[in-house]
Every structure is written in C-alpha cells, then in structure tokens.
C-alpha cells in the first residue's frame, strides 16, 4: 500500500500516534510519503488495540 494511504487509513480509524521507519535498515527519512510502500507494521493487522497505541509503519521506496 502506498505509505500515505496507509497513514490516512490509520488516521481515519482514530490512530494518530504513528511512527515510520525505513524497512531496508538504511535509516532514510520518509520525506515524500507517496514515493514509499508500507511493507509492515508493529501491530498485527486486524488486532484490536487502544487508539493511543504507538503504531510503527515500516516502508521502502516504491520499486525497491
């Protein structure tokens, strides 16, 4: 999923404590979210969690 879309989806569900990281381990900053693809998150998909939970989205540049 495009990283911006992933963030928008999480925010629409009430999650605003979002963090992001470079899934390749290179430590790059996700400056233009639309150029990145979300590959993982630290919370299992579909799991019910409180809205104040910090969710970390891992992403890599689209096409990598």
Report on the architecture of this protein:
There is one protein chain. The protein has a three-stranded mixed sheet, with helices on one face. Helix content is 16%, strand content 28%. The model has no long low-confidence stretch (mean pLDDT 95). It is globular and about 30 Å long. It is built from one helix and three strands, in the order αβββ. The protein has one domain (3-56).
Assess the beta-strand content as a share of residues. 25-35%
- Count of individual beta strands: 3
Alpha-carbon distance between the termini? 14 Å
* Element order: H for helix, E for strand: HEEE
In DSSP terms, counting alpha (H) and pi (I) runs of 4 or more, how many helices? 1
The main pleated sheet reads as:
3 strands, mixed
Q: Which runs of at least 5 residues are low in confidence (pLDDT < 50)?
A: none
Strand order of the largest sheet: 1-3-2
Mean model confidence by pLDDT: 95
Q: What share of the residues lie within helices?
A: 10-25%
- Calculate Rg over CA atoms: 11 Å
